[in-house]
User: Fold Iron-sulfur cluster carrier protein from Brevundimonas subvibrioides.
Amino acid sequence: MIDRAAVEAVLNAIPDPATGRGLVEAGVAEGLTVTADRAGFVIEVPAARVAAYAPVRDAAEAALKAMPGMSRVSVILTSEAPAPARKASLSREAVDQGRPRAPVPTDRPSHVRRVIAVASGKGGVGKSTVSVNLAAAFARAGWSTGILDADVHGPSLPTMLGLSGQPEYRDGMMEPRRAHGLLAMSVGLLTRSDDAMIWRGPMASQALTQMLTQTRWGTEDQPLDVLVVDLPPGTGDVQLTLIQKTPLDGVVIVTTPQEVALADARRAHTLFQRVGVPTLGLIENMTGDVFGRGGGEAEAARIGAAFLGDLPLHADVRRAGDAGSPLAEGEMAARFDAIVVRVMAAG
Ligand SMILES: Nc1ncnc2c1ncn2[C@@H]1O[C@H](COP(=O)(O)OP(=O)(O)OP(=O)(O)O)[C@@H](O)[C@H]1O
Ligand SMILES: [Mg+2]
Assistant:
């Protein structure tokens, strides 16, 4: 068993070049996660300082790997995106979330049994559609299910579940919204809908951490069986920081049958592997005459992941999304039920 205090002591023996203090003391080791045999954290610095911190990352990685009982270490060095000009006024809650440099909580959300992310390398492949309908299928299978829309740049859960209005706060926690048998939280509920979604990397990851850990997903008496997290598309720094700081039990990767999307799916798989999150499987979406078919299954075999199923382009799917309710019955809902059976077997 790796002890958190021991990890912190090892990191504090390495000086931060900027302040001369130990890495944990100086607040450089962000999102430090320690489990029985693993440790990881993120170092996020201005782009100009990345080179100066590369030796620090290497030293930290080497020192942690040398600890007895340590099987996997992941130290990620990433640069802060330059602060964008504030084009929109964010609500007070959202601004509070962006307040810099408070230690970021990375604890698991309490009373949640499993956290499963839905990811894609490429945007627009149907990740949010899959997240919502996968969550609905988990609920049909009898699991208490939550869905978290972590797509800070383009939250779509409010539309797809027909939600609006700010969440209520009670006893220091946000109450998730209830819709279609699911508990739901979206960054889209925390900002005014006409606000442009311009978030810097650290702000985005803090918003996610707060939605994860400060939403009352479950209680001691009624824990949540599964929380489905709709991640923003892509495999850049923002995604890396998010997944490093989020305690994920597994990821489902969505792709279309097209070659470009498949290459991006492979990249996403590699990214999750690097941070020790198992790929539960691939889903091929929009299968059919337009985009082709079969690429997802072949790609899954290539990367050694399970193939969870394909979903044809189907007008019901788009209609359900636009109407603000997940699929509840019919051929497409049955396909999601079959996917859930395979996810449950994989996880
Ligand atoms: N199998 C399908 N059949 C028909 N329409 C679909 C299907 N899957 C997704 N769509 C439609 O495609 C559009 C994009 O889907 P969605 O918003 O889920 O993609 P996304 O990957 O989450 O996109 P983004 O990268 O912007 O977050 C939506 O209008 C959705 O209704
Ligand atoms: Mg989306």
About this structure: DSSP finds eleven helices and 13 strands in the chain. The chain has a mean pLDDT of 83. The first helix runs from residue 4 to 12.
